[in-house]
Amino acid sequence: MSKKLFTYNHDRSLFPEKGQDGKPNIDLSSHKFMKIWHGPQHPGITGNMSLELTLQGDEVMDCETHVGYLHRGFEKLMERRKYIQCFPIVCRVAVPEPDFNEYCFASAMEELAGIQIPENAVWLRNLVLEMSRLQSYLMWIGGQAGSLGQGIIGQWSLYCRDLVLDRFEELTGGRIYHMYIIPGGVRGNLPDGFLKRMEETLQIIESFMKDIKKVMFNNAVFKKRTVEMGVIEKDWIYKYGITGPNARATGIAKDVRKDYPYLKYPDLDFEPVTSEYSDIYNRADVRRRDLLLSIDLIRQILAKIPLKGDIRAKTPNVLHWKVPSGETYSRAECTRGEYGYYLVSDGSEYPRRVNVRGPSYTHAVALLEDMIINENIADVAGLMVSLHTYPPEIER
Question: Is there a contact between 258 and 267 (Cβ–Cβ < 8 Å)?
Fold first, then answer.
């Protein structure tokens, strides 16, 4: 399935046979096998999670993921909070991308309550989601480079991300958690001079991305470690429920922004970024090009945003808001694929049921545990990061 950095001369007869549960029959008392823990505080791990690896020499024979090292249990917490009290909770489901949680939860409430938000608020929401996508990709690209030994890329990309967080701070008052998107609209309009400062930020990021392409993507060592490594086959996409860049790198243009248009995406000129071969290298390149697409989309939004008008529709008292009975599903395209909230209301002041559909469960558990078998221990971190996951989504 993949081309390895090293050549193995293992006796294949030593490899364990699989049992009825699909797991290999491994006798850990044998000197042939060794069990180690990768994470939860390994610099190459994706957030706070751990891999329980069984090795034969330096090759992975079995993998079991362990999560729960960070905050968890959001869905049940939300069932015990009034709707407005859920917003400080939802943004923690995916810390690097809180705004997609705010949007999905708010839009689900608005659909059940029959609320139409003002035009200006729609554009502002669209702007915030693309800014969130931009800073998340900048964080990820440094992690992918760092997992393969290129620390300088992380310093460049996190500097650029800090510039985007500066823009978030002046718009929302917060750098990480924003709670800017609320039921009925958004909390505030663009500050004076924001368009000029945002354009300056985008130009700096574009300049750094040219250097990142030279130093990272044109690097012979990076290519040796990533080309034809960790391949996702096209027929796995629907089998595993793979979305986002992991799927688009196979040539399948799955993108909620096009497949189920929302906000102002129908008014923006873009096509989903794809490739033809989903190995680590191409998944990274799809994300790099998607980052540049976000810059273009932000410019389109800033050119079309009204900059005046209402930013919030009239809503009931948020502390005593009884959302009408019903159920709905609201979705968006985050950096990792389809993100959605299934919301059920029984007509009370509290959600009856909230279920978060994040890509991390599929990518970090089902897919990773299968893909990592027979890979070298040196490639585990790079493969994990290439799938781009956030563990709190798994234990939400």
Answer: no
How many Cβ atoms from other residues are within 10 Å of residue 214's Cβ? Answer: 10
Task: Judge whether 133 and 255 are in contact, CB under 8 Å.
Answer: no
**DSSP category for residue 267:** G
Give the strands of the sheet with 59-66, arranged side by side.
34-38, 50-56, 59-66
Q: Two tokens at 49? A: 């999670």
Tens-place pLDDT, residues 101-151 = 999 999 999 999 999 999 999 999 999 999 999 999 999 999 889 888 888
Strand ranges of the sheet holding 351-357, from the earlier edge strand across to the other edge? 326-334, 337-345, 351-357
Q: Decide: helix, strand or coil at residue 269.
A: coil
Rounded CA separation 130/101 (Å): 13
CA dihedral 68, 71, 73, 77 (to 10 degrees): 170
Q: Is the pTM of this model over 0.70?
A: yes
Q: Is the CA virtual torsion 382, 384, 387, 389 positive or negative?
A: negative
Q: Which segments of the chain have a pLDDT < 70?
A: 1-31, 41-47
Q: Nearest to residue 274, comparing CAs of 249, 246, 302, 256?
A: 249
Q: Where are the domains of the chain?
A: 74-357+371-393
CATH 3.40.1190.20 assigned to 74-357+371-393:
no
Token match 């990309």: residue?
157
Beta partners for 278? 232
Peptide bond just before 98 cis, omega within 30 deg: no
**Residue type at 145?**
A
